[in-house]
């Protein structure tokens, strides 16, 4: 097995990637496909479930043509979390679009549940505050729009699953409906203490338990590929599945409490291991980090709804080619000249959790130039991370030593230096941005009984250099803008 490779998939909101990874953690080859998100109504966000599978099939087929494809010993999956697919168990066809994590179409349902006093119970069982981010209310919304949806689901003829389950179903030709503890813990239907789908939660949200996936350890042998699903031969095991943020934490080599990672994607997830199951008192979530061989690790997490997407959004508004062009423009001015951009484009996530607010630009003057708007957008990414970082310190009760980062936006040196400056802590960035895929690959090797030996070499260190007075002024301006937005 010395030549064994894992084909690791990272199915994200804006890109689907696949890597061939060897036991040293080296990336032998990669493939990617862009993804499209549809916004059919204000606050709604969805993707085609069939397009998600088509993109995964395309990157897998591309790597299947690699000269070393015969060495693939397992598949691994890391996936965008909280996005939900509902499909027909007999035909395997989706019965609705994939409602993604950013979607707020069930906000009124969630508000009604909170007003009825269910918030305490849900958070006690799941670690998650009631919010349309999570799949529970989305599944019920879909079932209500399918003829006889709930009765069919209760009879076992309809399936619901997060993206990992949807991909597994397709890889195995419909033979396996399963998920892992990390993804299950994000549904708001899974009891993270007893480790089962909770009957009372399912009843509260109107989700028949019969439609949900079997929950297994992250390193389980979830199933095997079938001939014709992709260009891969039949019989290759799917040996690791994790939510992307959890896989990134694993990929950073975090195995004990005290280290925080941030994945800068469309949104940003900050996550840190904790010694035991935890309930946040500062706007964060308790979650399951992963499970290996039946043992479960817990984590504390803060989810930012619009992060890297902030820069792409502002680039589009200013008529720039892409996020890189916006970052270049931002660096032409020494400050935002008092401009602040709070990118609550789908509401604000952690630590504020306000679905009713929308983005706001403040501090405009006759001296405002496009470069100031560009800089305000880049800075907003770092400010949001700083808010969650501070909440995490408050929950843990001790100062955190620094931040390990990954994701597409982490490639921006200007943003990363500003992030280190605003946190006043060192920031470390690994050699590869695809840490989620590497983490999933590492879990798959573990499931095969092998160890991935990568040592994390090639890290870039960003050391804070901003004077305290300047940092305090930046943060005061940001907090004033957020306070104004929140009323």
Describe the secondary structure blueprint for this structure.
Elements: E1 5-11, E2 15-22, E3 27-34, E4 46-47, H1 49-64, E5 72-79, E6 84-88, E7 98-99, H2 107-115, H3 119-126, H4 135-143, H5 149-154, E8 158-162, H6 163-171, E9 178-180, H7 181-184, E10 190-191, E11 196-197, H8 199-205, E12 214-216, E13 223-224, E14 237-243, H9 244-251, E15 260-264, E16 268-274, E17 285-292, E18 295-304, H10 308-317, H11 323-330, E19 340-342, E20 360-362, H12 370-396, E21 403-406, H13 413-423, E22 427-429, H14 435-447, E23 460-462, H15 468-486
Parallel strand pairs: 1-5, 5-14, 9-12, 15-21, 21-22
Antiparallel strand pairs: 1-2, 2-3, 4-7, 6-8, 10-11, 13-14, 15-16, 16-18, 17-18, 19-20, 22-23
In brief:
The chain is an alpha+beta fold and 487 residues long. It contains 15 helices and 23 strands. Helix 10 (308-317) packs across helix 11 (323-330) and helix 12 (370-396) crosses helix 13 (413-423).
């Amino acid at each position: 097995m010395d030549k064994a490779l894992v084909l690791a998939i990272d199915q994200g909101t804006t890109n689907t990637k696949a890597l061939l990874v060897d036991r040293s953690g080296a990336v032998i080859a990669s493939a990617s496909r862009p993804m499209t998100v549809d916004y059919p109504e204000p606050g709604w966000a969805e993707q085609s479930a069939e397009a998600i599978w088509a993109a995964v099939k395309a990157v897998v087929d591309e790597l299947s043509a690699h000269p070393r494809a015969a060495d693939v010993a397992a598949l691994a999956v890391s996936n965008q979390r909280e996005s939900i697919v509902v499909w027909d168990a007999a035909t395997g066809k989706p019965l609705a679009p994939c409602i993604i994590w950013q979607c707020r179409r069930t906000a009124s349902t969630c508000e009604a549940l909170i007003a009825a006093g269910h918030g305490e119970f849900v958070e006690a069982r799941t670690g998650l505050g009631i919010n349309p981010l999570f799949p529970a209310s989305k599944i019920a919304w879909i079932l209500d729009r399918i003829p006889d949806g709930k009765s069919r689901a209760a009879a076992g003829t309809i399936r619901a699953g997060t993206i990992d389950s949807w991909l597994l179903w397709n890889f195995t030709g419909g033979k396996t409906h399963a998920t892992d503890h990390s993804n299950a813990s994000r549904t708001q239907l899974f009891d993270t203490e007893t480790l089962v789908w909770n009957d009372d939660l399912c009843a509260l949200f109107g989700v028949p338990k019969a439609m949900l996936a079997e929950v297994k350890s992250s390193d389980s042998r979830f199933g095997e590929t079938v001939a014709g699903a992709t260009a891969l031969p039949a019989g290759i095991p799917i040996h690791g599945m994790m939510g992307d943020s959890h896989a990134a934490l694993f990929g950073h080599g975090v195995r004990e409490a005290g280290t925080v990672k941030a994945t800068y994607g469309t949104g940003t997830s900050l996550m840190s291991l904790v010694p035991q199951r935890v309930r946040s008192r500062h706007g964060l979530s308790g979650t399951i980090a992963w499970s290996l061989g039946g043992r479960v690790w817990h984590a504390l997490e803060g989810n930012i709804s619009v992060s890297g997407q902030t820069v792409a959004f502002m680039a589009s508004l200013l008529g720039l080619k892409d996020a890189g062009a916006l970052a270049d423009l931002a660096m032409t001015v020494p400050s935002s000249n008092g401009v602040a951009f709070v990118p609550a484009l789908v509401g604000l996530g952690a630590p504020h959790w306000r679905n009713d607010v929308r983005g706001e630009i403040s501090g405009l003057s006759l001296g405002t130039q496009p470069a100031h708007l560009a800089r305000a957008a880049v800075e907003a990414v770092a400010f949001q991370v700083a808010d969650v970082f501070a909440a995490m310190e408050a929950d843990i009760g001790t100062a955190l030593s620094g931040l390990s980062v990954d994701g597409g936006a982490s490639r921006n040196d200007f943003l990363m230096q500003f992030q280190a400056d605003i946190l006043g802590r060192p920031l470390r960035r690994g050699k590869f941005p695809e840490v989620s895929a590497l983490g999933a690959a590492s879990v798959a090797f573990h499931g095969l009984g092998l160890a991935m030996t990568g040592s994390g070499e090639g890290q870039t260190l960003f050391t804070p250099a901003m004077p305290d007075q300047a940092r305090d002024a930046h943060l005061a301006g940001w907090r004033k803008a957020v306070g104004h937005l929140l009323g």
